[in-house]
Amino acid sequence: MKYLIILWGTVTLYTLSPVFTGDSGLPAYHELSIERDKQKLTIETLKEKNRELEGFRDALLYDSDTVAVYARELGFGRDDEVFIRIVGFDERLKQPIAPGEVTRVLRKAHTADRLLRIITFCTGMGSIILVGIFDFLRRRPNGRI
Questions:
Q1: 17: Cβ–Cβ under 8 A, 6 or more apart, which residues?
Q2: Phi, psi of 75 (to 5 degrees)
Q3: From residue 69, how far is each of 56, 64, 143 by CA, in Å?
Q4: pLDDT 10s per residue in the chain (145 long)?
Q5: 3-class DSSP state for residue 107?
Q6: Can you give the pTM of this predicted structure?
Q7: Are 107 and 31 in contact (CB under 8 A)?
């Protein structure tokens, strides 16, 4: 009976250890769901940035006054205009268009399923060997090796 308990305990450990600590277990699933939420947030941010850029593009395509304003900011003007440069005035007051942020995926190291299986197998075999040695020592008449 002892050997069957060890065998079934090993099978249970073999089955449950990858679920709780393995690469495809619950902690890895939780990390993936967190990363999915980050990706959804990033996609929403990029969609908002895309809407802003589409508005900017449409303004440049269809509104000549907007083109004139941006041309003046770049230093261009009409033939009849005169520019006066103010010294000490920071020319970088306008905010440049940022393309977005880089999202890095941080993966935590999980115990490989193969390693967990090897450890479980060795633990089960070691337990069977230890119980066998204790049974052998108990059955000897003098109790010594």
A1: 116, 119, 120
A2: 100, 5
A3: 13, 9, 101
A4: 888 888 888 888 888 888 888 777 888 888 889 889 988 998 998 899 899 989 989 988 998 888 888 888 777 877 787 777 677 766 555 555 666 667 677 777 777 778 888 888 898 889 889 888 888 888 877 655 5
A5: coil
A6: 0.54
A7: yes
> In the 8-state DSSP scheme, what is residue 141?
S
Q: How far apart are the first and last CA of the chain?
A: 24
Q: E strands, 1-141, where?
A: none
Q: Residue 137 corresponds to which amino acid?
A: L
Rounded Cα–Cα distance for residues 97 and 28 (Å):
37
